[in-house]
Amino acid sequence: MKKFISDSILNIIATLLVTISLQLIVLPITSDYETNLEFGNIISILAILNSISSLIGSSLNNLRLINNDFYKENKGDFGYILTVSIIIGSILFSLILFSMVDYIDHIIYLAVLILMSLRIYLIVYFRINLSFLNILKHSFMLSLGYGIGTLIYFEFQIFPLILLIGEFFSILYLYFKLNMKVFLFEKTSNFRNLKKEYLNLSFSNIANVISMYLDRYLVLVMLGAQYVGYYFVASVLGKLMATVSIPISGVILAYLNSSKVKNHIKLFNKMFLLSIGFGCIVFLSLYIVSPYIINILYSKSWESVKSYYNLANLGVILYLIGTFMNTYCIKFLKMNRQIVIQYCYVIVLVLLGVVLMRKNGLQGFINATLIANIVRICIIYFVTYFDYYKGNMKVVKDDL
User: In whole angstroms, what is the distance from residue 46 CA to residue 87 CA?
Assistant: First the structure.
């Protein structure tokens, strides 16, 4: 338990370094130099960039972790899938960027996508070995790169350069630290099964990553880029806390993978209650400090967002609670359950978001996020219990 707590703290600090450097230093500085419309476009592109790179990197990261027993002795598969996925992702990202940025920014953003996808996947080798101190050191290098990139931004006013330099520092650290052999196109006997798992998980993660940034997509389409910036500012501290806290789920998954669980439904109930309690603490903290911090960091937008931030943060905290619970599902339920959970959430959020935004604008969308996240938590809860009592889990059901 002591090591679990210390590893969780290291993982939180690692994420905190990156999040603070990006959301509390880089983006506030950028917002002062860009118009509200330009800043909204930057936030929208970041959402697309994070969505595609997370879809590629996180899916393979989790699959490599949960299939570690086989791939300790058998090399291959992952390099092939990663290469093909990056090529497809780059083509898709390039098509989206075509009408949004100029040629130079376009090339830089594509380079960022490739490096970011590699970085998100390669971190798994630290997770496999429970080497969270190395994750912390890696995050320091990434943040250092962002800092140097920001200094260059003052001179050239090219935002994606900040991201490119950060990702370059990150990959440089991983290259020297991991000292890995590359097996790009080698396949093992498990390739067909892994490809199937990857497609299933990726299909569910499409909904997952879209849901993480769906607020920006919907607000962009329905209300315009300027309101994307407003919603980002209103929910920035909630997303900051979620970003910092979600690595705990990564630690949980790593420990679930490396230890035996005697009573699975009891573990799920504990995770549920702890998630609710943690969410309440985070929300009360944000309720107290948000007005002061937002007014300091994003003073230009404060008047436009001060009536939204409490409910916007609550929606993010509810999503965080569901994400903690879903960590259990990733480990112990069949992968197709992720499709049910994530796509039900996306459908509810899109339908409610469109309807309520037409009536109440940004406030309507915030209300939609609250309802959709409550629905997501309920679906996770009932799907888990249904599969447990029907004996449909990936493990043998234990006695209560």
Answer: 19
